[in-house]
Amino acid sequence: MIRRFLPLLILLAVLMVAAVGLRRDPTILPSTLLDSKAPLLRAALLQDGGMPQTAELQALLPQGKPSLLNVWASWCTACLQEHAALQRLAASGVTIFGLNYKDTDAAAMAWLRERHNPYRAVFVDPQGILGRDWGVYGVPETFVIDGQGVVRQRIVGPIDDRALSQQLAKLSR
User: Which residue segments constitute the domains of the chain, with CATH numbers given?
Assistant: First the structure.
């Protein structure tokens, strides 16, 4: 008797798992960073010539004001898709830091020169080691950091500046 209903039970189980999976937002991935201090990010800054400078994200974060860390690369087509949104956010006063991921400095500088730079500072991560500390799977990824340096959200894929502006406004209160 159980053998007779076994295919039906398996089908119901598969449908239940699929229904739960379809309700989840694919741009929001779980992260151990959420609601904890942003990991140390100390690296060389992207520069157009001159002596290489090293900086620390935590020292650059504006006190009491939310900011973003956007992980991007010049070879990333989705990064190009979100670039206009980043420019609008920067123009509205949002502080945005970049982490140039698995890219060359020359390609990144050329990309920013051509499209304009919305970042207050860009950290370089040519091997993807720093991205690993943040749990980066690929690009683009954006981390929302509150005014106390706590990671509040991780967004995978191109950002939506309208939705992000609303969230940043909530964190500013």
Answer: 27-172 (3.40.30.10)
